[in-house]
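Final report, closing paragraph on structural work. Over the funding period we assembled a curated collection of sequence-structure pairs, and we close with a single example.
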Amino acid sequence: MASTKPIVLHLGDPIEFNKDLYAQIANDYTVIRPSLEERQRGAFLKALREKKWGDFQAIFRPFWNTGGEMGRWDAELIPLLPPSLKVYGSAGAGYDWMDVDILAEHGILYCNGAQASSEAVADMAIFHIISVFRNMQWSMDGARSGDPKLWLEAHQNTAATAHNPKTQILGIIGLGNIG
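Its predicted structure, as stored:
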C-alpha cells in the first residue's frame, strides 16, 4: 500500500545536526533527497518534467551552502514544480537566487532563516573591516605558520602598514538585518 504521508524534497547534503528533529520529520513525512547529480540544473529540470519525485508538498534546504546546485529558481524552473507544493523552507538569508514573486504566483510560500545568522555575519563584517585597517592578516598568517621568524616580522612591522579606523566614517548600505 502506498504511503499517505506528505512528501518533502530535501535539497542539499545529509543532515549533520539536529538528527533527532530530522528523524521526527522522516517519521511524519516521506523525505526524498535527490543526489548531487540530480540537483544539477539540467537533471533537476528533467526530473521535474518527468515528475520523478511525485506530487511533493514541501521543499526544504537545511544548509545555506548546499542544495542550490540547480542555480536560480526562475521562470524556467518554478512552473515545473507540482501544484501540490505549498512551502519552500530554506536556510540562509536573501532572495537573490530565488524569484519569490514567481513562487507566490504559484501559491508557494518561501521561508528562510534570515535572522538566524544576522548577528554572527555582522560581527564578521566588523572583524573584516578592522582587520583591513589594522593589517591583521599578516599577524594571523605569521602566528598560524608556526615559524617564529614570520611571526616576529609581522609583529614588528604590522604597525607601520596599519591604519587607525578611529577617524573614519563607515556607511552601511543594503545590508538588511545585518546592517
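The chain has two domains: 7-112, 118-167. The beta strands are 7-10, 30-32, 58-61, 87-90, 109-112. We thank the funder for supporting this effort.
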